[in-house]
Amino acid sequence: MKFSDFDFDKYFDFDKFKRNDFNFDNFDFKLNLKYVAATLGVFFIILGSAGFYVFREGNIIERSDVFIKVEVASGMRAKDIGALLEEKGVIGNSNRFWIMAKLRGDEKRFMAGKYNFHAGMKTEAVLNKLLVGEVSEKKFVIPEGFTVKDIAKRLNEEGIASEEVFLEKAKYFRPFDYIEKNDEAYFTAEGFLFPDTYNISAEATEEDILSLMANTFDKKLTEEMRERAKNTHLSIYELVTLASLVEKEARFKEDQPIIAQVFFKRLKIGMPLQSDATLQYLMDAPKEDVAISDTKIDSPYNTYQYMGLPPGPVANPGIDAINAVLYPADTDYLYFVADRDGHNHYTYSYSSHLDKVSEVR
Questions:
Q1: Is there a single domain that holds both residue 307 and residue 195?
Q2: Each residue of 112-121: pLDDT tens digit?
Q3: What average pLDDT does the structure give for the chain?
Q4: Do both 98 and 126 map to the same domain?
Q5: What is the model's pTM?
Q6: Strand, coil or helix: what is 10?
């Protein structure tokens, strides 16, 4: 049997060894002496072998300044990481790596990510790099409907970007002409930072992240979609603004084209959009239900008080919400209300709407 195949966890409690709480009071010295002797023999053989492997770097690998890219997945075991590092030529002895990680208590503290290593690195240097998360790339996920503030908060929490700097840059960030300059908009970047999963360089700045997300949006907005918007007399800015309302009002995809049609009808007949999503955008924290007093807030984002579209998008919509605006449902509904499960119910008249509100709320 190879040394690397031996299951140390089965025969030796590393955690108890590290805690120094091995209790001899619980040890049964009445056991058969041969068994005790055999057990102690195995123990010292293992300990001696472990010591040998701990202090032996293994195969000598010529040091190189060429980067070796290694991705450590979340939840990956120390033994598997060591084997991967040895396979790629970063270290010469995966067993040394594994045992040192065990004895130092590091095996569950490694940071996931993509790393740049060099060939022939010392085990200690590799362990330290994995512990501090000195990655070459960082990954983050932005869900559909996140606002600029939501994105900034998540990036800050994950140690990727400064929340304060990101918000400051987003105020005036408009890399494409279709992002209109509107002094009443909170963030010109709002709506144009595409929700997706991203991998970025660990050295990326806040502006780099904004550029990456905005460029992704630009690529996702196909020529067919742009032509459809033009044919329906919508600017890209209006399209994204409407799509952001649809994104925030509809929890389920099937509701999006219907809600889009309701908004189009209200705009056509000169009725305020009365979107709770625009009120929520004004608040520091979301509310389950907006109050009558909230509809009195004096802001161009308040679509209960101001006609037409708000100054800009109130979130960053996904493709489904954008397509819902480009291809709305064919209905005559004028009102909708969501129940506690997020499903919307539609009516034609205000009196019917009030009845439905009482029923589902």
A1: no
A2: 888 888 888 8
A3: 86
A4: yes
A5: 0.69
A6: helix
